Amino acid sequence: MAQETSTLVVAVDSTSVLKATAELDRLTAASARAEAATGKLGGTNAAASTGMGKAAEAATKLSASENAAAAKTAEVAAASTAATKALDAQAAAQVKAAAAADAATAAQAR
Asked: HSE (CB half, 13 Å, CA atoms) of 85?
């Protein structure tokens, strides 16, 4: 029996594998950048939240100050009204006294 020898040559085109590897490397780098940006965004959100909390506290204090000022304004208005009434009563008494004095003078003149 005669021996037969065969040769099989296999050729593999790995061009697409190399290209896919490069694309995966770029995707990995992009995802690392996205992760870093997300971390920064989280820090920014925390800072913004703190700032908003401080702004809310300041608004609450301002509102309390405005309410106190409004109460003082109401007190001043009430005191002013009372003083005006007292001055009106005093003026009315002076008019009445002047009228009485005029009547007395007229009576003495007769």
From this structure: 6
